[in-house]
Each structure stands twice: as C-alpha cells, then as structure tokens.
Amino acid sequence: MKVKVMQVGPIGTNCYILEDEATNKAAVIDPGDEGDRILSVLKEDGVQVEYILLTHGHYDHTTAVPELIRALPQAEVYIHQADANGAGSQLFPLAGQVADLKYYNEGDTLTLGSLTIQVLHTPGHSKGSVTLQVGDVLFTGDTLFCGSCGRTDLRGGSYEEIMSSLNRLGHLEGDFHVCPGHDQTSTLERERQYNPFLREAMGQ
C-alpha cells in the first residue's frame, strides 16, 4: 500500500492518492481542487483509478470531482448520502454534478485490489462526515486533525456529534497513521496524548 498526499486549492486541502502496489489500482480521496495536477500524478504513476472517495461534501474537498470524472469515467464516486443533498449550496455543491453518485455508510467496505477500505460514519463537522480505515491508516477528513478537530459551526455541524466521533476514533484498538483533511499527518497515539479535543472526547 502506498499513500501520496497533495495540498490542493486555496486553503490547502489534503488530497490523498491511495495505491495498491500489488494490482496497480488506486483511489483518489478528497480531490478538493486542481484536477489537472491530480491527473498528472495519476498518469505519472500509471495507476488505474477505481474510486473517488469523499470524506464529506464541503466544496474544498469536492471541487475537482467533475473534472476527474470527465477524465476517469470508470471511477466510482462515493459520499455519505447526508452530505450529497445540497445542490446549489456552496457548502455542499456536489449534488447534481455527478450522474451516478454512490453512497456509503457505516460498516460498508470497498475492495481496492488487495486492500479493504472500511467506512466509519463520524459526523460532527458535517452530518455525512466519514473516516476511511485502510489497514493501519485513517483518512479522517475534517473530523480529526493533528492537535485539533474540525469546526462545527457550519450547516450540519454539531459539537456533541464530533465529540462522540472523536471518542470512537480514540478508542480504536492499536495505533494508526492519521491522514487528515488539512495540515500535517499524525498518529492516533500521538493525538491520544496531546490533542485536547480528543482527550476531552475520551474523558481524559
């Protein structure tokens, strides 16, 4: 398994390219902008893109989706349904732009070559926020950041819900690489020790 990260768009959203080296299949996670740059990396790596996976529906995580779909018509686009119903909203602009948008929810799994992608519904930043678990990696979107957590004052946000989601992530067994939607990567053990929001959520 290989994970590449690119900062895209005006606020530096982390777009991840998840590659299964055994089969050369890939998924693009949160293509927030700059579709041409993302496509260039995919072409350079020579991978077959099976999925475009969205941790939530905010524009800074979804802007490049239509451009990628035009170039990669075989790729299936997944989002939680709660974040796909905002046609015409700047916060949730994706609805209506993807003809065959697919929905995943708590407990669903997707197969990417030899990899299994597990879906954890982790609302709070938005109603449809998810965390994607692949082996020992967590793609946490805007739920869990290095030293912080996502804002809850936007439409669909809830501090109580994000605390519940953080508590759940914090109690996952073992350590994980944390790949958030913005800023630097971390580990779950480091966040358990130093992240004040995660510590509050876990009752520490």
TrEMBL record:
GO molecular function per UniProt: hydrolase activity; metal ion binding
Keyword Zinc: yes
Residues of the Metallo-beta-lactamase domain: 12-182
Necessary cofactors: Zn(2+)
UniProt-listed Pfam families: Lactamase_B
InterPro entries linked to this entry: MBL_Glyoxalase_II, Metallo-B-lactamas, RibonucZ/Hydroxyglut_hydro
SMART domains recorded: Lactamase_B
Keyword terms: Hydrolase, Metal-binding, Zinc
Keyword Metal-binding in annotation: yes
PANTHER family: HYDROXYACYLGLUTATHIONE HYDROLASE GLOC (PTHR46233)
Protein name as it appears in the record: MBL fold metallo-hydrolase
Upper lineage: Bacteria, Bacillati, Bacillota, Clostridia, Eubacteriales
